[in-house]
Amino acid sequence: MPKKLAVSILCLTLFGLLLSGCYSIEREQTSIRATLAVMQDQMSGDQSMGEMHSTPVPQAETPDGPADVSYTLTTGVSGHNLVFIGVGGEIDGQINPTLLAEAGDIVEITLVNAEAVQHNLQIDEFGVDTGFLDTQGQQQTIKFVVENEGSFTYYCVVPGHQAAGMQGTLQVGSGEQAAAASVVKPPDDLPAAVGARGPQLVQAELVAQEVVGQLADGSTYPYFTFNGTVPGPFIRARVGDTVEITLRNETSSAFVHSVDLHAATGPGGGGEVTQVQPGETKTFTFAALNPGIYVYHCATPSVPHHIASGMYGLILIEPEGGLPPVDREFYVMQGEIYTAEPFGTAGQLTFSHDKMSNEDPEYFVFNGAVGAVGLASEDYMLRANVGESVRIFVGVGGPNFTSSFHVIGEIFDRAYAFGSLTAAPLTDVQTISVPPGGAVMVEFDVEYPGHYVLVDHALSRLERGLVGMLHVGGPADPGIFKEGPANP
Ligand SMILES: [Cu+2]
After folding, report:
1. Contact 401/361 with Cβ under 8 angstroms?
2. Domains in the chain, please, with CATH?
3. Which residues of 76-102 are buried (b: 16+ CB within 10 A; e: fewer)?
4. pLDDT by residue (tens digit) across 183-242?
């Protein structure tokens, strides 16, 4: 057996053992099989581990002279993630620390392998690579010049390791840190009302995308999404429609994904026939038999992991004749995020299966991110004007926590509990329960300008990121609200 191939198989076996150890208490076998399948795909042919760079890394020249900044990283496991951990200095103990340098600096990075599993560290833009460290305690130092300002990714090239968490940022330049991708679904991004049309075929394409996105100011999280946002696209049809759902899993995904739509009648709501491997696409069709506002979500084990990471959305099946028109419609979903790191930690955060199993989240979010970068920020707040009618579709992806949805300073004129659009609505409601895997529709007129805060009235969650903002513009009517006594 050629030596390279033997090394490859050994590595694959070790990685498999590591994974099965990590995941022994959970049911992620499907995901592991997918990961291993991807690894095997990548390792097919006569490629060896040493030749596995997706794009060849041009070897940089090692500069003379002492380093301006030096960092030491060790490899490790955090929760169920593989990570780099800072050693010494300001980054000591940090998971995937952001490494800082100035343009023109000579940077030195020492990687120490803490396990008997192969790892490396490379930064494509600077053409640097530690080479593979195969044995426990082995270490390698790389020294290179950073000419350009910017944000660069350091990562481990061993198949599956980057996706499992082994990546961080080398930030060159004193400028503010480059913004991570936003996964926040704009709350006004939903299709137009169905109206009075007859039944037809409605086609929707969902794409499973695993993306590192901004969770809070200064921190990121490895999200699983439908179409790159949390929640996924708002799907809109009417009762009697035929709905065709196509689910594609991006080639770059590390996990299998699927979709279960609560609006569908049939095995697993589509979950059974949509399990898609990375690079695969599957389609199924269902009849929209019942009107209502329904949750859809990924149904691939570990299901709560996929849901907590962002794989949920709403599908509205309008009653015959359509919903009555309103001036503004909004789309808001609540979920929890279980990071290994405590709430407020900076840098790239990682998923904790233990915290999820214990229903002990670090973050609560509307539309995927904490309020400061999410629905309470200027970019994403809900906006309306005095005199307008507002409708909010509120769903809970969860996976575990019921929302006591409330808008501070407003009263829901009508609340359609449990997503039922055929039962008479509750009227004049302050707070409404929304269970995980459930949704409501609330409607109210806005009569007075100002900021109205969206919360779950289990208000401890406000301090863990769960806040949104409705901004109402227009003239103030003192007959509705004013500061001071009634008759001054
Ligand atoms: Cu999934």
Report:
1. yes
2. 3-172 (2.60.40.420), 179-479 (2.60.40.420)
3. bbbbbbbbbbbbeeebeebbbbbbbbe
4. 999 999 999 999 999 999 999 999 999 999 999 999 999 999 999 999 999 999 999 999
Cα(136) to centroid(ligand 1), Å: 33
Per the model's pLDDT, the better-predicted residue between 348 and 150 turns out to be 348
pLDDT of residue 126: 87
pLDDT at 42 > cutoff 50: no
Residue 239 identity: V
pLDDT digits (tens, 9 = 90+) for 99-139: 999 888 999 999 999 988 999 999 988 889 999 999 999 99
Distance CA 162, CA 83 (A): 9
Residues facing 348 on adjacent strands: 220
Query: Could you give the CA distance from residue 241 to residue 288 in angstroms, rounded to a whole number?
Result: 5
d(CA 295, CA 316): 9
Q: Is the pLDDT of residue 172 over 90?
A: no
Distance 118 CA to ligand 1 centre (A): 27
CA atoms within 13 A on the CB side of 53: 19
Ligand 1 centroid – CA 303 distance (Å): 7
| Distance (Å) from CA 286 to ligand 1 centroid | 21
User: Residue 268 Cα, ligand 1 centroid: separation in angstroms?
Assistant: 14
Distance from first CA to last CA of the chain, Å, rounded? 95
